[in-house]
Amino acid sequence: MADDKTMVLYAASYDSVSAAMTALDDIEQLHKDEVIGKYDAAVIDQEDGKPHIVKRMDRPGIRVIPEWFGGGALPRKELHEAAEALTANEVP
Predict the structure, then answer these.
(1) Of all helices (H) and strands (E), which one includes residue 25?
(2) With a threshold of 0.70, does the pTM exceed it?
(3) Three-state SS for 35?
(4) For the residues 26-32, what does the mean pLDDT come to?
(5) Beta bridge partners of residue 41, listed in sequence order
């Protein structure tokens, strides 16, 4: 059954991958502290002029690789398409 909850999208640009990874760790801690609920987050960098997904976190991670079956809040294909839409100054 589809989740009827509204999805909110936040995007941020960081000066470095390490700064983005620190923010991702902070988001994970907020989830562990039960300040936030479900989330789907990714750190995207550029490699050879193309988007590269450095790390992705999907919480709660109950399902087994939902992207392979077209599930998840943001399937892998859509994440790659969103990453490709970023301009060079939007990806560190």
Answers:
(1) helix 17-32
(2) no
(3) coil
(4) 89
(5) 57
